[in-house]
Prior knowledge:
Layout: H1 10-13, E1 16-21, H2 23-40, E2 47-51, H3 56-65, E3 71-79, E4 88-92, E5 102-110, H4 114-124, E6 130-138, E7 151-155, E8 161-162, E9 178-181
Parallel strand pairs: 2-3, 2-5, 5-6, 6-7
Antiparallel strand pairs: 1-9, 3-4, 8-9
Helix pairs in contact: 2-3
This protein binds inosinic acid and magnesium ion (MG).
Amino acid sequence: MIGYQLERYGELAEGIERVLISRQEIETRIYELGEEISRDYAGRNPLLVGVLKGVVPFMADLVRAITIPIEVDYMDIARFRAGSEGAVRLEKDLNVPIEGRHILFVEDVIDTGMTLNYLLRNLRARDPASLEVCVFFNKPVHRLVNIPLKYKGFDLPDKFVVGYGLDYREQYRNLPFVGLLHAHVFQEEIRD
Ligand code: IMP
Ligand code: MG
C-alpha cells in the first residue's frame, strides 16, 4: 500500500509530535466495523446519522466498508461555551423523518459524552425503531454520562489529538492518521 506517513505532510506535520493511530490501523478497524454493522443490520436499511464536521472522513470510509443497503444523513450543531457544559443547539436538522427507522448514530469522538447525550435524547423523542451508537474514538477519562457504545473504533488516552476529522482550531482535519499535537502548538482545548 502507498505510504501515508507523517513525513509526507511537510509543514502540516510540523505541529505533530507523533502518530498515535496510523492510516493502516484506521483502515483495518473500519473494515471490521463494516463487517459487524453489515451483519447486524442486514435487511433493516439503517439510516446512519453523523454530526458535521468532524465525522466526515470516518463516515466516508465507514459507509464504503458496509456491504448492505443503508442511507446517510447529517446534523450540524452549535455549542455554547459559557454556561452549562454540553449545551447544544441544532443548526441543521436531519432531512428525513426517523420514526420507525433503525438509526445508527455515527460519531468521530466522544469525550464527556454531553454532546452525544443531548443528540441521542433529541433523536429518541422521534420514536425510531432502534437507536445505537458507533463512535470511532472513545476518550473514557472525562465521561460524565454513561452512553452504551454498540460499536467502537479505538480507546484514546487523555490527550488532545488531531487528524482524521479531528481539528485544533479548524486545522489538521485532513491528516489521514491520528496525531498528538506538540505542546507549543496546543494552547487550550477547543471544542468545535
Ligand atoms: P463531548 O463528548 O461532549 O465532551 O464532546 C466531544 C467533542 O469534543 C467532539 O465532537 C470534538 O469536537 C471535541 N473533542 C474532544 N476531544 C477531542 C480531541 O482530542 N481532539 C479534537 N476534538 C476533540
Ligand atoms: Mg464532533
